[in-house]
Amino acid sequence: MTRRLDGFAMTMNKDQHIEIEAATFRRLLHHLDEHKDVQNIDLMNLASFCRNCLSKWYSAEAAARGIEVPYDEAREIVYGMPYSEWKSKFQSEVSVEKKEKFKHKTN
């Protein structure tokens, strides 16, 4: 498979491509885990996705391949622990300003 990235041709086979994508996803999860101070609403306001979105996408991609991964299980994969535990340990109160920004972004 040849893909173009910033003007450079990169040749890799399908398995290598999948392996690199999987490693990148694991790295993203690790990065999010290292930055628990970054709240989901911050991610939504800046990038229009959050940990919950990743969980939904994970569950949907599994379903598209005939594999059932319930949303709560996908969230545990993304959060690295049950969501209720992550929420009680790391979720902070959302400011009115952040709520307003999110409200205007979704309307």
What does this molecule look like?
- The structure is a single chain.
- The protein is mainly alpha-helical and 107 residues long.
- It folds into two domains: 1-34; 37-107, SMc04008-like (SMc04008-like fold, Orthogonal Bundle), CATH 1.10.3340.10.
- It has helices at 14-34, 40-47, 51-64, 71-79, 83-90, 96-106; strands at residues 2-5, 8-11.
- The protein has a two-stranded antiparallel ribbon.
- Helix 3 crosses helix 4.
- The protein is globular.
- 8% of the residues are buried.
- The model has no long low-confidence stretch (mean pLDDT 90).
Short description:
This protein has 107 residues and is mostly helical. It has helices at 14-34, 40-47, 51-64, 71-79, 83-90, 96-106, and strands at 2-5, 8-11.
* N/C terminus separation: 40 Å
**CATH class membership of the largest domain:** Mainly Alpha
Care to count the β-strands? 2
Helix content: 55-70%
Domain count:
2
Keywords:
two-stranded antiparallel sheet, mainly alpha, globular, 2 domains, SMc04008-like fold
Please describe the topology of this protein.
Elements: E1 2-5, E2 8-11, H1 14-34, H2 40-47, H3 51-64, H4 71-79, H5 83-90, H6 96-106
Antiparallel strand pairs: 1-2
Helix pairs in contact: 2-6, 3-4
